[in-house]
User: Fold these one by one.
Assistant:
Number 1:
Amino acid sequence: MIKDKRKKQKIGKEIEQDMLEKQANKVFLGIGSNLGNKKLNIENAKLHLELNKNFRIFKTSKFYKTKSWPNPKMPNFLNIVIEGETYLKPLDLLFFLKKIEKILGRKPAKKNSPRMCDIDIIDFGHKCLKLYDRKSFVITPHPRLEERNFVLIPLFEISKNWKHPRSNIKISQLLKQIDTKDLRSITVE
């Protein structure tokens, strides 16, 4: 009986220590869809994020409609950006996001093909990261962030003071360098 008490105390301390080691990181994710019910796909992706105990959503941008890139003849995209917090490590977050994409019907296809759900890590803890696993990699901030109006505008909407982790350039300055004419926020029923 005394041994059991010591085990419980020891386990309790280990669990407590483990919880102290976990650190939350602020993250920004871009979520897009250009197949099926785009709004529902995005809402379902958000729901999967919210159901994970290691992820919390703080802010969500409006929906933005854009032409598909690089082939504008493909179906238009609907996009949002969310600000959240995660206890997951960067690669674990990537695996979790890929799992959500798969659950929502994303199939292996050529790069830039239409998709039910696409979730990108835009920024992880305001760090510059390049992490590789056998099949996957995480680069933050997203390598083409500065070129993407469908990321910068919704990101500015929810985080006006955000600065690029690598260049330290304010988002308001980045917005002045891109074309915004084909992007518009929309109310989606």
Note: The beta strands are 25-33, 55-60, 63-66, 77-86, 118-124, 129-132, 137-140, 184-186.
Number 2:
Amino acid sequence: MAQSGVSVAPECISTFNELKLGKDIKWIIYKISDDWKEIVVEETSKEANFDAFREKLLNAKSKDRKGKEGIGGRYAVFDVEYELDSGEGTRSKITFISWTPDDAPQYPRMMYSSSKEAIKRALNGLAADIQANDADDIEWDNIKSRVSKGR
């Protein structure tokens, strides 16, 4: 359980293991439930379409404690595949993205920040970790550069 009191639903781990072992799932988006008690799977995809994935993050909504909907954070895992610049082939890295937009309301930002370590600990086998706070942080070139560390 996170410092925030938010727990990780078992489905989060089983869905991650499907991505990690079977490679059928290319990305997973997790959210904190509307009652702010549990991290749950919001959506998965078998398509490695980064633009569709990015749009889902950019359009994420969360409710504050009073039930008012606004800009929301998310956690996500994307199986990032990229070509090595040296021409030595393709690499794949399972990448954790914590999406906490700077313009989201304070309560969702605080909850996503304080619950991040709980879900990261639950997901064994992450190769990279990216904190994203604005749209530029989740541009494909930025993600690829951070995951490949320039290689």
Note: Helices lie at 10-22, 50-58, 106-122, 140-148.
